[in-house]
């Protein structure tokens, strides 16, 4: 895989044998933990918060992801983490380093298999296009934060090609005005970017091996991921903030978007020191 190959737009070759083995391991691991998590959720056991972290961590290893973490995750919670979004694979990567639940568009709840997994992780489903329901959705998010849950939000509202960060939508930042135990809610920007494949910089040509956007079909994309070699994905935690440092929720959203965009740009341009893994 050379720079010359990358410039032609060619795709790296995967191994069907590797893909079949990873798929079998992924399904076995998932089917093993689903009833445990379902029981933990039904009985409201503390395990329901810890098990997803373990699940995603093992899934990341099965998929061959080398997750490199930069910066420090804000803790203790509750924290509203806001991140860029380029793929369904972001769930596995962020879920392996952040104990929390995701905020997802309502359509995800109806997806076969993955919708059920999202519900087991206590995902908060929102109608992103329903302006009239913003207050209700804000209250739902607020109730989860009041209960001490960390939430992970993708404010772009859709997935990108992984090479840039789209503008953040501001509606759900209204929850940042909430006070938890008398103190303003902590908001932490997080950047995520796939950067290397088998140690070689991915570049624009290979980044779609991770990024899932536009009219891409899910099954062929996921199979490609299973067949490829080791992929490095960088996660950068930026300094946490609260809304008290900003004049409005839009100003807070703009600040978070800039921080995340700068982190993505550093990662995809290779301005960070070469990753050593995590």
UniProtKB/TrEMBL annotation:
Keyword Hydrolase on entry: no
Organism ancestry: Bacteria, Pseudomonadati, Pseudomonadota, Alphaproteobacteria, Rhodospirillales
Residue ranges of domain Phospholipid/glycerol acyltransferase in the record: 79-195
Keyword terms: Acyltransferase, Lipid metabolism, Membrane, Transferase, Transmembrane, Transmembrane helix
EC supergroup of this enzyme: transferase
TM spans (from-to): 23-43
SUPFAM superfamilies assigned to the protein according to its UniProt record, in alphabetical order: Glycerol-3-phosphate (1)-acyltransferase
CDD domains: LPLAT_AGPAT-like (cd07989)
GO molecular function list: 1-acylglycerol-3-phosphate O-acyltransferase activity
Pfam (any one): Acyltransferase
Keyword presence, Lipid metabolism: yes
EC assignment: 2.3.1.51
Name recorded for this polypeptide: 1-acyl-sn-glycerol-3-phosphate acyltransferase
InterPro entries given in the database record: Plipid/glycerol_acylTrfase (IPR002123)
Subcellular localization(s) per the UniProt record: Membrane
